[in-house]
Amino acid sequence: MFLFPAPSGTAAQEILVYSSLDERLAAPLIAGFQTQNPDIAVRYEDLLTGEIHARITAETDAGQRTADFAFSSAMDLQVKLVNDGYAIPVTAPETDDWPDWANWRDTAYAMTFEPAVFVYHKPDFQDAPPPATRAEFLDWMRTGANVQGRIGTYDIERSGVGYLFLARDQEHFPDIWSVVRAMGAAGVQQFPTSEDILVRISDGRLAMGYNILGSYAADWAREHPDVGLVLPRDYTVVASRIGLVPRAARSPDLGARMLGFFLSRAGQTILAEELRLPAVSLEVSERNSARAMQDTLGGQLRPVPVSPGLLVYLDQAKRARLIARWKAALAGQ
Fold first, then answer.
1. Helix crossing, 252-263 with 23-36: angle to 10°?
2. What per-residue confidence (pLDDT) applies to 287?
3. CA dist., res. 26 & res. 9, Å (int)
4. pLDDT in tens, 221-279
5. Alpha carbon distance 242, 234 (integer Å)
6. 115-136, pLDDT tens digit by residue?
7. What pLDDT is recorded for position 166?
8. pLDDT (0 to 100) of residue 225
9. Quick one: 195 exposed, middle or buried, by C-beta within 10 A (0-12, 13-18, 19+)?
């Protein structure tokens, strides 16, 4: 737990936040919120996505107070909190023109716009461009030089976003299982986190990373000149971090105030420019935003809607079937 004291020196109120965003990365957002609210101290708990869901449900069910604001990259678990009655609607001026796909019941709001990208080791593609579609990726795996053992992707059993991206691939690309079988034949390596993959691409142990969260890849590429990334031209799945105010919040008014800040132009600009997490707001028109990507890529982008449709990814029987099919395809079956 981290405490951000009130800038005024006198904490008239304190807000409790549960978030999956690292405290170091969240600091600029907290500072921006406190600039507008100098008498509010912020108690910040950096938790795993599953822990956020478990804490809010357990504390609420026990009749206890819980976080005032929750911000998580687990889209399915955040929507489940809303669907199961653990969050409250929030109406704020900042939400009036929020995209329909990014708002469910005025209760769960998408706040970032993070594409799944191909990441590559630039020295491996000096003589030819890297694949820019799944068909080109498939062709490269079958005919490219020095491919064996040099492809990385998420372990979908351990990575929630990896599982989400594969599930969306299955919906958008009928031939996805040919791609998975080719990855298996090429000795694909699976990892639980983006960093595990990106560090191996930057030093050349991997030549390509498939379906990597673009926000992390872009940040890594700025610091590692041998890392490049491609937004797939056939389609690009876009995930989001979702914010909500829990029903059992100690101070729901403060939770609503923080949500409003995250959705405001000021908050969205901090996300885009300082955290390098692409903004959803159409008021933020800089390169790192939904508007900029839509202007450039248009229908290529496939945002994951904030809706009850996300709950299908929590169905354990369907999850088990998809993982089993993934493993079988990697094994060439």
1. 100
2. 63
3. 21
4. 989 999 999 999 999 999 999 999 999 999 999 999 999 999 999 999 998 888 878 88
5. 26
6. 899 999 999 999 999 999 999 9
7. 94
8. 94
9. exposed
Q: Structure tokens of 269?
A: 């600009």
The label of the residue with tokens 């900042």 reads: 94
How far is it, in rounded angstroms, from Cα 168 to Cα 8?
47
| pLDDT tens sequence across 179-203 | 999 999 999 999 988 889 999 999 9
pLDDT grade for 93, boundaries at 50, 70 and 90? confident
Phi and psi for 193 in degrees, rounded to 5? -130, 160
In one letter, which amino acid is 158?
Answer: R
192 CB burial (10 A radius; 0-12, 13-18, 19+):
middle
Two tokens at 107?
A: 């209760």
Assign 3-class secondary structure to the chain: CEEECCCCCCCCEEEEEEECCCHHHHHHHHHHHHHHCCCEEEEEEECCHHHHHHHHHHHHHCCCCECCEEEECCHHHHHHHHHCCCEECCCCHHHCCCCHHHEECCCEEECECEEEEEEEEHHHHCCCCCCCCHHHHHHHHHHCCCCCCCEEEECCCCCHHHHHHHHHHHHHCCCHHHHHHHHHHCCCEEECCHHHHHHHHHCCCCCEEEEEEHHHHHHHHHHCCCEEEECCCCCEEEECCEEEEECCECCHHHHHHHHHHHHCHHHHHHHHHCCCCCECCCCCCCCCEHHHHHHHHHHHEEECCCCHHHHHHHCHHHHHHHHHHHHHHHCCC
State the Cα–Cα distance between residues 91 and 252, nearest whole angstrom: 12
Instruction: Give, in degrees to the nearest 5, the angle at Cα 116 between 203 and 307.
Output: 150
Predicted TM-score (pTM) above 0.70: yes
Integer CA distances (angstroms), 325 to 152, 166, 269, in order: 18, 11, 41
